[in-house]
Amino acid sequence: MLVFGIETSCDETAAAVVANGFHVLSNVVSSQIDHAAYGGVVPELAARRHVENLPWVVEEAFDAAEVEWSDIDGIGVTRGPGLVGALLAGWCYGRGAARSCGIPFVGVNHLEAHVHGALMPTLEAGNRVDYPLLALIVSGGHTMLYRLPTEAEFCLAGTTLDDAAGEAFDKVSTLLGLGYPGGPVIDQLSDAGDPMGVNLPRSRLSNPFDFSFSGIKAAVRREALRQELEPGRPDDQRVLDLAASFQCAVLDMLEASTDAALRQFPSRGLVVAGGVAANRGLRARMETLAVCHEVPLYLSPLELSTDNAAMVAAQAYRRLVDGEADPFDLTVRANWPLND
Fold first, then answer.
1. 269 Cβ contact partners less than 8 Å away, ≥ 6 residues apart
2. CATH number of this structure's domain 131-268, picked from the four choices 3.40.640.10, 1.10.1060.10, 3.30.420.40, 1.10.10.60
3. CA 13 to chain CA centroid, nearest Å
4. 37 burial class (0-12, 13-18, 19+ CB within 10 angstroms)?
5. pTM for the complete prediction?
6. Architecture, CATH, for domain 2-115+304-320
7. Are 251 and 243 contacting, i.e. CB atoms less than 8 angstroms apart?
8. Is the dihedral of CA 51, 56, 59, 61 positive or negative?
9. pLDDT in tens, 170-215
10. Which of 131, 262, 331, 338 has its CA 20 to 30 A from that of 148?
């Protein structure tokens, strides 16, 4: 079965063709650079860029997969969570294509797709995934820990009480004048900094599986003011040390909560998914953690860590192969918890 996927939940315009739920024939992603000047995603601008980019992104996806619309058996589109205007751009395009081609159409939960994206290499290799699992979903908009008793059940164990981890990276990078998006920039610059150079706080919460990153963000601001750091100076060793110390503190908190959850909930595997899963330090820590708990690690490949349509098409396959389809009068959901 060939499934065509569309992802437009935030600022990536993506289209992909996936066979049988795991074999990626094409995966085209166009990242919008317009938002760098604002230090964050501008929702209205993102929606307009999706409308402009979708036609050529879709064409590239079909060309790369060497298929035609007549070859597609179903369409999956991100329904939520995300920015309403951005979601609607992809939703209307996918729904219109499904109507025109007379093929089934399903809405996909963006977070569930991220989890499935981390499992795709294992499934493509013909290996079985055993449940229950523990999943850390960490991105610019979400930081959550879920228990998965089965592949269709998601039980929330912990979540961020304020900023998402990726959002904290973006805001700290903007504060230090290092650029946007902040995650890749800080990850790269941290190699030249001392992760123990600045003493930054780690949150301690009543629920050990929850997260909080507002405190560390404020601490970085205070430290930058105290040291009178000049924005946009990656050649300043003090800036490098602060960036490395910030990243170390964030990774400490992500690791601590995940470790606590693995100790509390019997799991037969650890899933790490979302844009921040591309962070090299986090990947190394999760690999070590999985070894310590003697569980397999399902880590998103780099090309499936950030927002993409291959994971959407793969998740849609699970419903389409069972003959399911959504009605065309369904609409998007800006907020869509996995346990809903």
1. 129, 130, 131, 133, 134, 295, 296, 297, 298
2. 3.30.420.40
3. 14
4. exposed
5. 0.93
6. 2-Layer Sandwich (3.30)
7. no
8. negative
9. 999 999 999 888 999 999 999 999 999 999 999 999 999 999 999 9
10. 331
